[in-house]
Each structure stands twice: as structure tokens, then as C-alpha cells.
Amino acid sequence: MTTTDEITLDIDGKSVTVPAGTTLLEAAKQIGEDTPTICFHEATTANAICRICVVEVEGQRVLQPACIVEAVADMQVQTRSEKVIRSRKSILEMLASSVDLSEAPEIQTLMDDYDASAERFPDAQRRNIEIKDDNPMYIRDYDKCVLCWRCVQVCADDAQFTYAINFSGRGYETEIGTFFDQTIPASSCVFCGQCVAVCPTGALKPKREMFIQQGISPEDITVMSSGRKKRKKRT
Amino acid sequence: MESDPEALKEILEPYVPLGQSGLLPALHAAQKHAGWLSQPVATQVANALKVPLADVHGVIEFYSMFYNEPLGKKVIRVCTDVACALKGADEILKYHCEQHKIQPGQTTPDLATTVEASPCLGMCELAPVAMLDEEVETNINLDAGTSEKGGPRSIVGGSIRLLTANCGKEEPTFITSYGSYRAFKKVLLMKPTDVVDEIKASGLVGRGGAAFPTGIKWDGAAKADADKKYVVCNADESEPGTFKDRILLRDDPHSIIEGMLIAAFAVGASKGYIYLRGEYPYVLPVLERSLSEAREKGFLGENIQNSSLTFDIEIRVGAGAYICGEETALFESIEGKRGFPRVKPPFPTTHGLFGKPTVVNNVETLANVPLIINMGTEEFRKIGTEKSPGSKLFCLSGDVEKPGLYEVPFGVTIGELLDMAGGVAGGKALQTMLFGGAAGAFARPDQLDVKMTFEDLRTAGLPLGSGVLMVFDESRDLRKSLAHLGKFFAHESCGKCYPCQMGTQRQMEILNRIAAGDILPGDLERLEDVGWTMTDSSLCGLGQTASTAVLSAIKEFPELFVENGK
Questions:
Q1: What is the DSSP code string of B274-312?
Q2: What is the ipTM for the molecules in this complex?
Q3: In this structure, what DSSP letter does residue A124 have?
Q4: Residues in contact with B250: Cβ distance below 8 Å, sequence separation at least 6, in sequence order
Q5: 3.10.20.740, 3.40.50.300, 3.90.45.10, 3.30.70.260: which CATH number matches A3-81?
Q6: What's domain A138-225's architecture?
Q7: Which residues on chain B are in Cβ contact (under 8 Å) with A169?
Q8: Angstrom distance (rounded) from CA B336 to CA B559
């Protein structure tokens, strides 16, 4: 690699050299700085929506999302400035006051790391969304949804090109939804399972996993599901 | 009303070739036909335009003025934002609800009437206001049972009349009364790069709120290499307290069209869009007529005035989303999507509408363009100050004697402008002014001597924003106004990035508690943390400024946020 393809910048007072095109998220790893992320997933287009990965870049009016901002020569980056900590902590506290994070261990760990209190916003209106159980493969428990967009993305142009789900509502009322709230079997869903695979909070869950959590044994689940199946006998 | 699939098919025909980018106009047309966007109607639109069903539903759900539930034959929208709230908007909303025995946002069982609270309708100088379907009702006085209809009137004043020379008259300008595009004809004899240089030299900066140098924007788009470029007029004026663009568009539409033509010539664009907010339906016929006039006279179309320039303009009507005033959200909306702002960079000058180089300018910015070309940079720069050349439109509303649109050269003080408008209404004492809009800041009475220039206002910590000056007299309870601001941003957040999506909601909840006198210990700190998090970390300008006014109120009036405050 020639020197023009390499970029040297300063992160937390340490000099870091990375290939051109490296994001600040990747660059920070070189000095052992593990920048937190929520919406980011290597398989989906980074949209920089959770803003938990923000860092302070000298000369920039606002904090910059490390997941998409690329390193520039001589950039001065602070990954744990006072501003950064306040934003990360507040975002976590607002999340905890909005949705059920009980099955999001990574976010819970972040709550501890940033000393974020789940009770910071008393009397906050929670999303309180009922479980949608309308298909044999997975349940949709949107009370646990943090709106990371990954499911919508893999259902659309990032993977499957199925477009079964999109958004309903706007702002705080935003939810993941189907066309006029139709059931998943009625939608264009092809049960590829990719949305379930990328969900970080247990909002989309395979039914088998849900049954096991409810204390039903794997054997019983097999009996239950085989009872439902209507397979044509081969002759 | 019920949908007739055959009739709807014919209605949708013109939008079919547009594909997804025809979605908003197609939904508007379908809703007009069927009364509301039912599942069969939405399905027909989706199939006609070949857009996935879930995406169509997502778009309907995003825009306040698209309805996927039955809507009343008559829709009453009562503006309940800050300026109207000062003049009794909440009582007017309550009155209509009681009349029809429904709650805000509901429709009567016989589907006769829907009553809604609306975000700022852009008629703050005529407050309180409402819209009955597409008809405007202003200066509503419930006690006297009076109001004005058929407006909105244009009240225009000030110490200089350049941008507003043709405003406030009986009717909109026609091409001949406007001056037959003299500036554009002058430009056709110039080199495009010289036009860009002229705008750069004029020192013109954007009037939509961000104050970005117009010439630099044009230069970027001019230098970008692409097979197609666009000029977009941002007429999605939605900042509470702002009504200047409404008056410019309705009274002097040709100045905007000419500004767009000059921009198109300068950057090499072949297509223009005017994105008009859905709450200004009465502006639409004026713009349509003016564009037809321009086409008839050979100012739009192919080889305009025998030059090599080919350019035409299409109007796109929004559907109730403040966020679409953000330039990249506006592009998404024209492309037929939910109005989510994009991550910047890349910037519109290289990656704008449909991913092509785009110049997007505010209405007032474009109105300055013909003026600069006609006057010449040297004369133009004699107006205003060295660092803030030209004149500026200010929207005065609230407790001011003569609310209206005022044009003044940059450099006039806040106090001088207030005097032009007759001072505080009823001779009361001034408590504060909301400066710059809902995303603005509160000015103190001792700041009346501040000169209104970009440089002086920056020093004073006041954002010029979109030129809003909303006056609050001594008797006003600012906590109530802050609660209205909080409601506005919570309603208008697009929900894309976490800080704004949740922050506007938490901010509203705390402001509501404060307005109701139910302050919890720690609320002030919560408000500050939420506010600074939105300011520092939000993805776009909406979130970054959604707490500017609140944070300025905390600084100027800390007593409002503690339990024993007034």
C-alpha cells in the first residue's frame, strides 16, 4: 500500500494510521477503543440513526456518527468527551424509558457502562405495543423494538427485496408495520427469517425460542408443530 | 365517498410513468377522488405505480394530510401553534369539537365533519386562524362571532420595498406587470460562470434559516459533472411564525420563477421543482397560472428565448410534514418516500434529487436573485451592511400592534423594527420575543438595540432563522408557549434518529408538566440533558434545533423551570 492510501489521524491523543475509507468506528478499534453501537450491523447499510456511536471531531459543530464518518488526515477525534458521554447516556436513558430492553443484553451492558438510569424519566409515556402472533414462524413483540431499521432493510434492498414491512406512524409513534396492518401470512413475507436474525432486542423472535422461554420442552414443541403441519403424503 | 376503480385508474394514468416519484401526487389525487385512502384505493395506487404495498402504507402514515381512515366531508383544521395559541386557538379548537361532539382528530359518526388541531398554518399575522377544507378563516373572534374569509390578506410594510415591491396589492403579478423577466434576459447574454460569480459577489446567503452562501452552492452544482441537474425551490414554509414565502409566492410568483430560471442557466439544470407545502392550497392556482404564462411567453420549455437552455418547472405539493423543509427530506418526498432526512455529506450540490447535482434554495433567496442581476452587485451591496448585504423579510406576530410582513435593510435594530409595527399591542410592556422561529431563541427586552445582521445577531446569541419575531407581552405565561413548542416538535419529528425521535417526546412531556405546574424534582436537568443531546447528536437540523428555544428560555428565564416559579 502506498502512503497516499493511508491516513494518519489522532484519536484520544493517540496517533492512528488506517487505510483510506476506514470509518472512525474501525479506526478507533486500532487503539482498543470499542465504540458502542446499536443500529449498526455489518450486513446492513449503515444509516447512523441510533447516534450512540457519536464522537467529537474538532472543527465540527455537532457530534459525528463513527459508523459512517470516514477518517480524514490530521483529524482530531475524541471518543469519550463530556459531550459524547452526555449524549450516549441520555440516549440510553430515553431508550429505557420507551421500550422493553429485558432481552437486549448488549444495551443493558451499555446502560451499566455509561451509568445510565432506567428510571431517569418518571412518568414517561412508554410505547406499550401488544405482541403480534399471526404466523407459525415468528412473533413480533414491538414493545421491545428499538427502531434500528435492520429488519426493514434486510426485507428490502439490503437482502431479500421482498418489501413486506415498512414503517407506520411518525416520530415517537413510529412502528414497524405491514400494509394496513395485515398479518404476516397475508403480506408479501417469504419467511426467509433474515429479519429475525438481525433483530438485536428480541422484538422478532422464532416461536421455538419463545416456547422454550415459556418452559415448554423442545420435545413438546416438536409435537405441537408436527400437529399443525399438513404435509402431502408422497405416493 | 366511495372509490370507483375505473375512474381512479384514469385519474392515476398521468402518474404511472413517474413510478415511485409520482406517489405523493397520485395519493393526493386518489384521496381527492375517494375521500380517503382505503386499503383498496392504496392497493390500486401501489399497483399502478409499481411501488411495494408496505412502502405505500409507510408513506400514507408519514404525512399528516394523508388519511387511511374515513375522513369527514368537511375538514376543519384549527392552527394551535404558538402565535395562534396566544390569540385563543385552544378555545377555537374546543368550540369546534363541542359543536360536533367529537375530540380533536376525530370524525363525526355520519362522516360529515373532521376536526383537527393543525401545526402552524403560516398565517400568524392574521391569528387566530383555521382552514375549512381549502378555505381560509382568519382573525377568528369567537365572542363576537366574526372572522375573515377568502384570504389570507397580505399585510406588508417596512422601510424598503425591493423583494416586496409587488406584494400586498389587489392581485398577483402577471408576467407583463412583473417586468417580463428582464434579469433573465440579461443573464442569457452572460456566461453561466459569470452569473455564479455575480451571485457570489453579491454576498447573498440563504434565507431559509441556515444562511449558507448561495453563490457557493450554485458553484458546487455548476462544477458537478452529470447528465441531469435540478433546481428546487423550497416552498415548504412550515417554521412556526413564518409566512414570508406564502406572501412572496402568492403576490409575486414570477420573481421566484425567474430566480429559478437564472439558477438553471447558471448551473446547467434542465428540470425544476417547486415543493409547496400542503397547507397552502390557495397558492397552488397562482403558481399554476404563472407557470402557464411563462410557458406561453417562451420562458419555460425548450430553447428558451432562442437560447440553448431547456428548462421546465413542476409543482409538487407536500402533505403535512415540517421535516420536508429539510432539503434532503424534501428530495425524498419528491422521490415518493417518507420524508426522512439523509445523512450529509454527500451534499445536494453533488448528490441531490434523484442522486443528481441539485441547487435547492428557499423562496426568499430565489426572490433576491433577479433583484441582484437587475441592480448589479455594487448597487445591491449598498443596501444593508458589509457583511450582511441586502434586505430581509421579517414576520411579526404575537402581541404586536400591527402584525405583518416587514422588509428592512440588514442593520435595522430589533427595536426599530418593533416600532415600525407599532410596538407592543395595547401599550403593554414587552416580556420577550421569540426570534427566528420555533427553532429560534428568546430575546430579552434589553436586546432591542441589537442590529439585525448575521454578525450582530450571532454575537447576541440570537438566530436569524427564517426571520420570525414573535412578541410576548408582560402578561403572557411563557410556560404555556413552551408547551406548544414542545408539542410542535414532538408532532413533527420524523422518528429516524434516536435523539430527536425520543428527545422531542420527553421534552414535550416535561414542558407539559412545567406548564401544568406539576414540576418534578430534576426536571430542569432532564430538560437540559435531553436538549443538549438533541442539539449535539441529532441527524438533521430539525433535531439539532428542536430545543434551541427551550434552552434559551432556561438561560433567560430560569425561574420558569423551578417549582416556585411564577
A1: EEE-TT-GGGHHHHHHHHHHHHHTTSSBSSGGGSS--BE
A2: 0.95
A3: P
A4: B154, B172, B282, B283, B286
A5: 3.10.20.740
A6: 2-Layer Sandwich (3.30)
A7: 61, 495
A8: 46
CA B372, CA B364: separation in Å to the nearest integer?
A: 13
Q: How far is B180 from chain A (nearest CA, A)?
A: 43
Q: Tell me the CA end-to-end span of chain A in Å, nearest whole number.
A: 63
A172 vs B461: CA distance, rounded Å: 30
How far off is chain A from B200, nearest CA to CA, in Å?
A: 24
Q: What is the CATH number of domain B478-561?
A: 1.20.1440.230
SS3 category, B196? helix
Q: Are A52 and A91 in contact (CB under 8 A)?
A: yes
Tell me the pLDDT tens digit for each residue of B403-418.
Answer: 999 999 999 999 999 9
**Amino acid making up residue B65:** M
- Report the residue from B39, B56, B494 with minimal CB separation from A170: B494
- Whether the upstream peptide bond of residue A185 has omega within 30° of 0, thus cis, is no
3-state SS, residue B531: helix
- Looking at the DSSP bridge assignments, the partners of residue B430 are B473
Mean residue pLDDT of chain A comes to: 92
pLDDT exceeds 70 at position B547: yes
Location of each CATH 3.40.30.10 domain in chain B: 74-143
Say which DSSP state B430 is in.
Answer: E
The answer to whether residue B70 neighbours chain A at the CB level (below 8 Å) is no
Q: Residues of B with CB below 8 A from A52's CB?
A: 498
SS3 content of chain B, % helix, strand, coil (to 5): 45, 15, 35
Q: What is the pTM of this model?
A: 0.96
Query: Which grid coordinates belong to A36?
Result: 458502542
